[in-house]
């Protein structure tokens, strides 16, 4: 860390928004467990997420590789937006090959960063966001490192990350669940569509309200597995991908 530059203290955590649908009793803990178990039996746990599972969930495997930092995870999530897993991984590898340190990314020309991540799509938008985040972290912390977030609560992490331009609620939720191993439940396109179709959130719900409701209703110990399974199911099940959500059903077997 540069001399004479003290990192700022974390901002006070904002109050959690209220439950948007307090009268909707779904999903119950039993429903969550049933869907988790049914999807595990049907498709198994997705291999791409295994390394993020907690040791208590999957024995003898570390939750993360020791060289994977929180800032690495944040950039990986940003690069994964609106593209395939394979393309986002290639983009991250290309970025790290061109700029081995995040300080180099900060000091690089934006167009050079764009070139490095072009294979991941939306390079102009993503490069600008990555540069803005690097600049913001450096200004706030005096170094480009977010590992201090590991010691904060969920509410404090949300408050901290919301200060950086280009980081939305879904990105924050993914950082919490995958890279900080906190109990959170991101709502992506697949989760949003499926939970509407089985009546866990109202048809009129937007993604933000769905996120708030599902995080209130789903037991913490089921959030990680259930989220990963729903995301994967939405990708591999053509019937779910093509099915509209005009008529909700609470029959899990309809998935």
TrEMBL record:
Residues 1-25 are annotated as: Disordered. It comes from the Eukaryota. Pfam families: HhH-GPD. Residues 79-236 form the HhH-GPD domain. GO terms for molecular function: catalytic activity, acting on DNA; hydrolase activity. SUPFAM superfamilies: DNA-glycosylase. Transmembrane segments: none annotated. This is HhH-GPD domain-containing protein.
């Amino acid at each position: 860390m540069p001399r004479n530059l003290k990192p700022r203290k974390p901002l006070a955590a904002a109050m959690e928004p209220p439950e948007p649908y307090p009268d909707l009793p779904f999903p119950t803990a039993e429903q969550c467990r049933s869907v988790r178990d049914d999807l595990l039996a049907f498709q198994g746990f997705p291999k791409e997420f295994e390394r993020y599972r907690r040791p208590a969930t999957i024995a003898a495997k570390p939750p993360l590789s020791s060289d994977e930092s929180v800032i690495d995870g944040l950039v990986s999530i940003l690069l994964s937006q609106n593209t395939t897993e394979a393309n986002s991984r290639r983009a991250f590898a290309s970025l790290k090959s061109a700029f081995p340190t995040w300080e180099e990314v900060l000091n690089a020309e934006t167009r050079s960063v764009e070139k490095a991540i072009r294979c991941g799509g939306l390079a102009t938008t993503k490069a600008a966001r990555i540069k803005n985040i690097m600049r913001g972290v450096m200004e706030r912390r005096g170094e480009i490192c977010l590992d201090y977030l590991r010691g904060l609560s969920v509410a404090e992490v949300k408050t901290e990350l919301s200060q950086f331009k280009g980081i939305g609620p879904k990105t924050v939720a993914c950082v919490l669940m995958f890279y900080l191993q906190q109990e959170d439940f991101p709502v992506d396109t697949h989760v949003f569509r499926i939970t509407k179709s089985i009546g866990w959130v109202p048809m009129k719900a937007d993604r933000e309200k769905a996120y708030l409701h599902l995080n209130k209703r789903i037991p913490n110990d089921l959030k990680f597995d259930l989220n990963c399974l729903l995301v994967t199911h939405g990708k591999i099940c053509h019937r779910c991908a093509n099915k509209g959500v005009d008529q909700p059903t609470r029959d899990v077997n309809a998935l």
